Amino acid sequence: MMPPAKRPRLDPDDEVSEAEQLNRRVLRKLENAMLNDPTVDLTTLIPKTYSERLALRKETHPSLTHETPGDKDQAPTSAGDVAEEQGPKLDSLPSPPPELHIPFEFSAALKILLGLETLEHGEVHRELQRVLKEGEVIWRSQFNENFVVIRCNDDIAVKVIRQTTDLTEFTALHYFEKHAPDLPCPKGLGVISDSRFTYIFMTYMPGVTLDTIWKQLDHTQKALIRSDLERFFDRLRALPVDNMPLGGFGGEPCKDTRRHSRMCPHPVHTVPEFVDFIFSNPHYGGRVYLDILRGIWPTDSKVCMTHGDLKPCNILVQLTDDGNYRLSGIIDWERSGVYPEWYECNKATDMLTPTEAEDDWAAYLPPCMSPETYPLVFVLDRLWDSHVV
């Protein structure tokens, strides 16, 4: 039997689409895993957001900025001062159409930033252009360069995302400002949408993201951050949820993100209904096996306020006078809402794989979201996730 012919080496400088670049990276990852272990389960290595990322890269949007070569690959990962690094100024911006949607009253701070006394769309459009051009890009999506976070001034940042009517993040921030103003998270200031983008204005949170300094920390420092997270989430989970449906704080549908993000098409009021939604994901595998998983999944859980995507890149920390990093804020609340008490654990650990040899982040999760607290659901969710299409 003749050995397979070698593939021609792919030149990284070739002119290829962003979607093809993503597929090449995923293939290289799978090939490397096969070299290390020919029997590896490849489905565990495909990024959970692969389908969403591929779809974004297939889209064609005009660029928000002029960038020098290499800028796209140096995107930081948060709205904070990521490793003390700031991106380039916006010096060119396509003129968005004047048909704007403003779903919430602007805060006083946002009106001052935009220099507006009224919400006349022509004026909002013009001042939005000015603010975006004058701001500093402090985060850029590695999957779509049009999605950025811009620091407008010392106190205000704006998150630019694909046009959406799902404003879970903003309604969460508004809820916290009203019911838990002591929580260290941004305050929502206003939202503007046009036909292409949604602009979510919020207070700027100083700090560096935990992922940028985690490997530098010793056990004592990591334990301090775990204690800070425990206090934060004990406070969050103690907020009343009486008579609130499951899902976003503003009545947004339940979400579940695995290979891609799904929204439940109908209201969910109980934990059993939410588990049914989880198991409605397109999947493969034997019916009897999956019915057993569904049958032993706990459904008598309490529900509580949940972040839904707690990762080091969404945790801001600052260096204190005693030389330790301490929690300064939690950002990125777009997957937040009222969910079963075990759901935070599942989503905080969903990127953990058997091949993670160095990253011990999951070992320092606070008790309220630790796999040791919810061992059954943690294992069941991993088994179920391996069957999701």
UniProtKB/TrEMBL annotation:
<dbReference type="InterPro" id="IPR051678">
    <property type="entry name" value="AGP_Transferase"/>
</dbReference>
<dbReference type="InterPro" id="IPR008271">
    <property type="entry name" value="Ser/Thr_kinase_AS"/>
</dbReference>
<feature type="domain" description="Aminoglycoside phosphotransferase">
    <location>
        <begin position="169"/>
        <end position="363"/>
    </location>
</feature>
<feature type="region of interest" description="Disordered">
    <location>
        <begin position="1"/>
        <end position="22"/>
    </location>
</feature>
<feature type="region of interest" description="Disordered">
    <location>
        <begin position="60"/>
        <end position="95"/>
    </location>
</feature>
<dbReference type="InterPro" id="IPR011009">
    <property type="entry name" value="Kinase-like_dom_sf"/>
</dbReference>
<dbReference type="Pfam" id="PF01636">
    <property type="entry name" value="APH"/>
</dbReference>
<dbReference type="GO" id="GO:0004672">
    <property type="term" value="F:protein kinase activity"/>
</dbReference>
<dbReference type="InterPro" id="IPR002575">
    <property type="entry name" value="Aminoglycoside_PTrfase"/>
</dbReference>
<protein>
    <recommendedName>
        <fullName>Aminoglycoside phosphotransferase domain-containing protein</fullName>
    </recommendedName>
</protein>
